[in-house]
Amino acid sequence: MNDNGLNLRTLFLRHVAQTSDSPMCIKVDHAEGIYIYAPDGKKYIDLIAGVSVSNAGHCHPKIVAAVNEQVSKYMHVMVYGEYIESPQVLYAKRLTELLPENLTSVYFVNSGSEAVEGALKLAKRYTGRTEMVSFKNAYHGSSHGSVSVMGNEEFRNSFRPLLPDTRIINFNDENDLNQITERTACVIVEPVQGEAGIVHPENDFLKKLGKRCSEKDVLLIFDEIQTGFGRLGKLFAFECYNVIPDILCVAKSMGGGMPLGAFISSNKIMSALTTNPALGYITTFGGHPVSCAAALASINVIVDEKLLEQVNEKSNRFKQLLKHEKIKEIRGTGLFLAVELGCSHLRERFINKGIERGLLSDWFLFCDTAFRISPPLTITHQQIEEAVNIINSILDEI
What's the total number of domains in the chain? Predict the structure, then answer.
């Protein structure tokens, strides 16, 4: 209770703007590893990880130490791109060392939506073209530009007019690739469609997409905001499909729990943003030094603790143990799974019952019949068994 006798839930609903009419309203006291703890001590197994954010687990001690060290030195000092700040420079160096040679220049922003905005503007600026192509059931964020390339009409219609000269084609339909032409500035694609309910490319679709873009001198943008930093068992999903984008968008788990995003390209392409006009793309808090310090610690944890090498084994463990008559299908690879129940009512009951039983899952924006399994990559086999036992018992009840 606060001084006025109002509890935190009441204040939350009154003063914190809501994104839906039914928020989870879980009170958080602290979090550690794969668990979130309420003030009353109730423990939740977190199979959401902040929607693929906490890949190194909640409050990993090395990330917390990096944050504390940087906070004691300086926080914000100047808008992005003007001062030389060692957390930005050292992280950009480390990140690009792990990327192909055409992805050498990192433009830091605050979030995934901003990364997408920057990538779209960069593509139009560099190519001099205006058409942007995306895919049905794609999700790229909530800003006007990212909504303009979102592949779901229900989400788009309430915010029209949107950006002109956008085209939405079908994922995994190679015939639709013919709609990519000399007018097209860029194609933006999730290598694995997340909010569609974990839809993977089929029949070398991404290779065929890359080939078409090369033929038409179109920039290929990969949105790896959910799949990046190990979720599929490789540092980035494009490594799984042997297709290298011209521009890579990242965010979510990038900051190790701190807000951070980026779009990454070659120095040649990225230089298009430096003139005509100067400051054509600018951000105040992008690449915040504390976030970059956390990001450097996070990527070192993922690499040094060999979390990538364990992801597919843990994925297989989930699939082996999740055997229930109510489960129609398990889609996905790595720790990026959709458990299909075939019924939105069942999915809703499952998630609500999970909250009661101390298990946090989530649904997909464009697939309301499946629930999400995307835990921290640090989850152990014992913890997987703990989670699956709860899942199966809930499925027995609903």
Answer: 2
Examine the domain organization and report whether 72 and 116 are in the same domain.
Answer: yes
Q: Are 59 and 32 in contact (CB under 8 A)?
A: yes
Phi, psi of 60 (to 5 degrees): -60, 130
User: 212-224, pLDDT tens digit by residue?
Assistant: 999 999 999 999 9
Q: Residue 1 falls within a domain, yes or no? A: no
Mean pLDDT of 62-71: 98
Residue 396 burial by Cβ neighbours in a 10 Å radius (0-12, 13-18, 19+): exposed
Q: How far is CA 31 from CA 43, 56, 67, 229, 352, in A?
A: 9, 12, 16, 21, 20
Whether 25 and 73 map to the same domain: the answer is: no
Q: Which helix (H) or strand (E) holds 301?
A: helix 289-304
Q: Say if residue 94 is in the same domain as residue 142.
A: yes
Residue 157 CA, chain-centre distance (Å), reads 23
The whole-model pTM stands at 0.96
Q: Are both 299 and 313 inside the same structural domain?
A: no
